[in-house]
């Protein structure tokens, strides 16, 4: 997707929230959007999601898009599964595929017991898991997350981190806003800040804190590792194997990417590192 000279204001004479925004969203990329409260971050994400339209400028090349809003509208006449099925169909899935995807994401977020519970009776945390699940149902090419981690428990946050890594490894673009500056720090490829009405690129700084995992993998003769792997792992190439080091939150997605690549790679060893091992 590309934005050129995009501006947005509300009302004919209203002040500009954003103006002159140029932005490219390449595949295999995690993009963080920063800015103070009320700066226009959510407006930008709504433009990317197609919820809002630009007042001026152009937005082209829209891929299959999914969006998690800052506030989930829980007062809807659906059960948890009913809502996921409904959104799955909107995302273009057939009924059987939508049912399978709904079951998968309810299981991954550990909320299968609420499958038939009306949305209005769910806790805020469970509602947020449903909000995230609907965005992941149809394997979007552009995943837009507006403070999607807020309200999630630790396990669900890790599940969402892993899901973002999976989508990006598959070629998607993820754009997110979050109050935690460490969120997806090992995976972020671009950072943009809303300043005034402009969008300014800033340097991405990777966090090296937190648990990491070292994976030793070997491919068949002549095999080359994919260019984009979950978590942007560090690489050390040996005579007959490659060692990859990645933040632990991305390790499952990285292993999955190696094992499902064509041709698949053989995993020789997995080690969890302590700080002195790095």
Low-confidence residue ranges: none
Mean pLDDT across all amino acids = 89
Quaternary structure state of the chains depicted = single chain
Q: Would you tell me the structural class of the helices and strands?
A: alpha/beta
- How many strands? 13
Give the distance, in angstroms, between the N- and C-terminal Cα atoms. Answer: 37 Å
Largest sheet: 6 strands, mixed
- Total of helices: 6
Helix content: 25-40%
Based on CA atoms alone, the radius of gyration comes out at: 20 Å
Write down the overall geometry. Answer: globular
InterPro entries: AAA+_ATPase (IPR003593), ABC_transporter-like_ATP-bd (IPR003439), ABC_Transporter_VariousFunc (IPR051782), P-loop_NTPase (IPR027417)
GO molecular function, one term: ATP binding
Pfam family, one: ABC_tran
Protein name: ABC transporter ATP-binding protein
Characterization of this structure:
The protein has a domain at 212-277. 26% of the residues lie in helices and 29% in strands. It contains six helices and 13 strands. The chain has helices at residues 41-49, 80-90, 95-108, 124-136, 154-169, 251-260; strands at residues 2-9, 16-24, 29-34, 56-60, 65-68, 142-146, 173-177, 188-195, 198-202, 212-218, 234-237, 242-247, 266-273. A six-stranded mixed sheet has the order 5-6-7-3-8-9, sandwiched between helices. Helix 2 (80-90) packs across helix 3 (95-108), helix 2 (80-90) runs parallel beside helix 4 and helix 5 runs parallel beside helix 6 (251-260). The protein starts with a strand and ends in a 5-residue tail after the last strand. The model has no long low-confidence stretch (mean pLDDT 89). Keywords: ATP-binding, Nucleotide-binding, Transport. Residues 1-227 form the ABC transporter domain. This is ABC transporter ATP-binding protein.
């Amino acid at each position: 997707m590309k934005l050129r000279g995009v501006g947005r204001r509300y009302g004919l004479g209203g002040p500009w929230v954003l103006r002159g925004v140029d932005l490219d969203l390449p595949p295999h990329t995690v993009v963080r959007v920063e800015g103070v409260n009320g700066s226009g971050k959510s407006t930008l994400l709504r433009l990317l999601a197609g919820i809002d339209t630009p007042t001026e400028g152009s937005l082209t090349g829209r891929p299959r898009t999914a969006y998690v809003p800052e506030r989930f509208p829980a007062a809807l006449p659906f059960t948890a599964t009913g809502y996921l099925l409904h959104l799955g169909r909107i995302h273009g899935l057939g009924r059987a595929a939508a049912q399978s995807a709904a079951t998968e994401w309810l299981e991954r977020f550990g909320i299968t017991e609420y499958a038939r519970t009306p949305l209005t009776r769910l806790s805020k945390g469970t509602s947020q898991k449903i909000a995230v699940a609907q965005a992941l149902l149809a394997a979007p090419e552009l995943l837009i997350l507006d403070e999607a981690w807020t309200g999630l428990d630790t396990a669900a946050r890790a599940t969402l981190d892993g899901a973002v890594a999976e989508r990006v490894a598959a070629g998607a673009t993820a754009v997110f806003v979050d109050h935690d500056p460490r969120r997806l720090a090992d995976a972020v490829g671009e950072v943009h800040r809303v300043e005034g009405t402009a969008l300014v690129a800033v340097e991405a700084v990777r966090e090296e804190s937190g648990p990491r995992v070292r994976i030793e993998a070997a491919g068949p003769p002549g095999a080359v590792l994919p260019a984009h792997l979950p978590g942007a792992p560090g690489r050390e190439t040996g005579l007959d194997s490659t060692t990859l080091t990645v933040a632990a939150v991305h390790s499952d997605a990285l292993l999955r990417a190696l094992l499902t690549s064509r041709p698949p790679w053989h995993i020789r060893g997995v080690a969890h590192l302590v700080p002195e091992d790095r």
